[in-house]
Design a protein that fits this description.
heterodimer; A: Rossmann fold; Alpha-Beta Plaits; six-stranded mixed β-sheet; four-stranded antiparallel β-sheet; 11 helices; 29% strand; B: 240 residues; mainly alpha; 81% helix
């Protein structure tokens, strides 16, 4: 549905987006993840035909964003980062205005407004002036506007920024709901959000794609070298020697605390050493009271790659 | 063109919520009222609005007022970010510019409609020349259209209303006042060129009742040129 090939954007000497390529299939909810200033908004603005790319190609639903701009804009619903609206208009007036721009006639507009009012919970403030609305309500109006013409693709730039926790939850519920009928690309710098909502994640930093895949796949790629924590009672030195001897264990740290030994074990890639450790403790009679794997979250992954990125740019 | 109409309607509504528009409206009608009682509405005076419209006062007054009205047209959309929603909807730049121009133009017509009261007063107390009156209003409409197209053009350049407004005022002053002053310093063809460039020359001729094609063409082509240029400035965002 969305296809991006070797997209590059320069603002003068500053490289905002550097040679990125990705695909979004129909029906996917794709999270565009990255720290502030990573190039998310720039990429989104190129896809929505607001800004041109310096080089590269992008198509939405088969239309090229540079040469078939109007057709692309018919296919997409776009919520810009700060949900800009006209403060002097009432919500209903605004939606009528936007409906007209999308070529909907009076009856179609009424039907469309009724539909988005229902889905975005605009009921209570549909007749209020936009200038009086809170940030969360404005985001919802912006989203309603994006959905008005029932586009195939929804592109949402930071749809939950500036909302309070309840509103964030509602907004996420809505996005999940919309994902059933639309292809969605949305950007975020909150990991938990992306982890929960997306079928696919693209991690971007300093204008480059660092990783992409399903949230599970990304998590696995971090947890590959994950750690095992175990606590057992027994002589520290013997435990260390015993555990180190197990095949697959790379490193063991032992730390004594009120008679218990706390082990932090690093295993090789893909090795599961939990069973031999249990067998060992059972055979030697070392009472075990805890053994768990430290599952790396996407959060770790994010911190790790952005730290790497920073270290690299520091060297440059 | 439906899009242009939608944008025009929205723009017109926006003016009725804008404090600047009300200030301009009140000041304009107030000043017109003063000029009318001072220069037109007198026993034995000429039965037309010429006293109100002739000379420098009206073109300079409109120059400032219409620059104030036009400066926000696109700048405000850039500043508030709504331009992003507008340009990512299936709307062409031509439609945006036309819609904006027609929107502010409609507000200007509403302003002018207020001055028709003076024409009625003159008609009641004297023998009003209706053809001359029509010529006067045509001159005012053409002059306003030109001013607004220039305002719109500068508004396309910047997100700062004030900068857009000042640029428009300076530009228009150069083309109405300065070119006249320069023309007065010369003789022969140089004088003719500068006089022809001056907005006020063409306006004054029409106020005197000379409805020649070259004056109308001057306004229509210059207005069209600035609207075209504004469209190109806006379009340039897509390939810059």
């Amino acid at each position: 549905m969305i296809s991006v090939k070797n997209l590059t954007k320069r603002y003068g000497p500053v490289l905002a987006v550097s040679d990125i390529s990705f695909e979004v299939q129909a029906g996917q909810i794709v999270g565009f993840l990255g720290p502030n200033g990573a190039g998310k908004s720039t990429t989104i603005r190129i896809l929505t035909c607001y800004q041109p790319a310096t080089s590269g190609q992008a198509t939405i639903a088969g239309y090229d964003v540079f040469t078939q701009s109007v057709q692309v804009r018919r296919q997409i619903g776009y919520l810009p980062e700060s949900a800009p609206l006209y403060p002097e208009m009432r919500v209903r007036e605004y939606l009528h205005f936007r409906g007209k721009l999308h070529g909907l006639d009076r009856a179609a507009r009424d039907a469309a407004i009724a539909r988005v009012t229902d889905r975005c919970w605009l009921g209570e403030f549909i007749n209020r002036p936009i200038g009086q609305l809170s940030k969360g309500m404005r985001q919802r109006v912006g989203l309603a506007d994006a959905m008005l013409h029932n586009p195939k693709v929804l592109i949402l730039d930071e749809p939950t920024i500036g909302l309070d926790p309840t509103q964030i939850q509602e907004q996420r519920k809505l996005i999940t709901e919309l994902g059933k009928s639309h292809t969605i690309l949305f950007s975020s710098h909150t990991l938990s959000e992306v982890e929960r909502l997306c079928t696919h994640v693209i991690v971007i930093a300093s204008g480059r794609i660092l990783a992409s895949g399903t949230p599970e796949k990304l998590r696995q790629s971090v947890s590959a070298g994950s750690r095992l924590i175990a606590e057992m009672k027994g002589p520290a030195e013997e435990i260390r020697r015993g555990v180190s001897a197990i095949a697959g264990v790379k490193k063991v740290d032992v730390e004594g605390r009120d008679g218990w030994q706390r082990l932090s074990i690093e295993a090789g890639d893909g090795e599961d050493v939990r069973e031999p450790i249990f067998a060992l403790s059972a055979a030697r009679g070392w009472t075990m009271r805890e053994m768990r794997r430290e599952v790396a979250s996407l959060e770790d992954f994010f911190v790790k790659i952005t730290a790497e990125q920073r270290a690299q740019s520091g060297k440059r | 063109m439906r899009n242009a109409v939608a944008i025009m309607q929205r723009e017109l509504i926006a003016y009725f919520f804008s404090p600047i528009a009300y200030v301009v409206l009140v000041l304009f009608l107030g000043l017109c009222g003063y000029l009318f009682t001072e220069f037109v509405f007198k026993p034995g005076g000429e039965a037309s609005l010429r006293g109100l419209l002739d000379g420098w006062t009206m073109p300079i007054m409109l120059l400032f007022f219409l620059s104030l009205l036009g400066m926000r047209l696109l700048s405000e959309e850039f500043r508030s970010g709504t331009m992003e929603t507008l340009l990512t909807a299936p709307v062409t730049e031509v439609e945006i510019i036309l819609g904006k121009f027609l929107g502010v133009g409609a507000f200007y017509l509403a302003m002018l409609a207020g001055t028709l009261a003076y024409a009625v007063l003159v008609a009641v107390f004297g023998d009003l020349d209706v053809m001359l009156l029509a010529c006067h209003y045509l001159a005012l409409i053409l002059l306003g259209g030109l001013y607004l197209s220039v305002g719109l053009f500068f508004s396309a350049w910047t997100r700062n209303q004030l900068v857009a407004g000042l640029l428009a005022i300076v530009f228009l002053l150069v083309f109405s006042v300065l070119s006249q002053l320069v023309a007065n310093q010369f003789e022969g063809w140089v004088r003719a060129v500068f006089q022809h460039l001056s907005i006020v020359t063409h306006y004054s001729e029409m106020i005197r009742g000379r409805l020649a094609l070259d004056h109308v063409l001057y306004f229509v082509t210059t207005t069209a040129f600035f609207l075209f240029a504004a469209t190109k400035v806006l379009e340039s965002r897509r390939w810059r």
